[in-house]
């Protein structure tokens, strides 16, 4: 199976299907183009606007960005361990516990975007290094089966999901 064909439904937990379905071609290509899309969407945003929440109890734009970074790091770590044949069941993480303790709103947006770029470069380097055999390896994360190939689609799809939320829920209200 090619990295560029969508993973079989047995390669990931059903709740990741939303992310996998958002990526219809090469996940590495999506991961390579997403930073430019993110920059386009955030162009001209002030520090104050980056702390905007579209509703009470929702994350700010900065918090959403740090969530995207944290999640990509965790997913890449899972892909690394599974690709190397590690059969240890990998734990889940609770995003709603990570976000408030990230202190994202206290950070400059430029700092968050620099971190984003650094993490993305590392992710692309890692995913691009995998052989076909490594991509097909399966492990367990959050109590569910997952392949390395599926992790690449999940990572790209997770970001696509959040870019959509940024476009649909945050930016229209900031423009108003």
Helix-strand layout with pairing:
Layout: H1 17-21, H2 27-42, H3 61-83, H4 95-102, H5 109-129, H6 132-136, E1 138-141, E2 144-147, H7 148-175
Antiparallel strand pairs: 1-2
Helix pairs in contact: 2-5, 2-7, 3-4, 3-5, 3-7
- Would you state the CATH class? Mainly Alpha
CATH superfamily: dinb family like domain
**CATH architecture level-2 label:** Up-down Bundle
Structural class: mainly alpha
Q: What name does CATH use for the topology? A: Four Helix Bundle (Hemerythrin (Met), subunit A)
Q: Give the total of domains.
A: 1
Q: Give the tally of β-strands.
A: 2
Question: What's the alpha carbon Rg, rounded to whole Å?
Answer: 16 Å
User: Treating each run of at least 4 consecutive H or I residues as one helix, how many helices?
Assistant: 7
Sketch the topology as an H/E string, one letter per element: HHHHHHEEH
Report the major sheet. Answer: 2 strands, antiparallel
Percent of residues in helical segments?
55-70%
Uncertain runs: none
As laid out across the biggest beta sheet, the strand order is 1-2
Q: How big a fraction of the residues is strand?
A: under 5%
The average pLDDT is: 96
Distance between the termini: 47 Å
InterPro entries: DinB-like, DinB/YfiT-like
Protein name: DinB superfamily protein
Pfam family, one: DinB_2
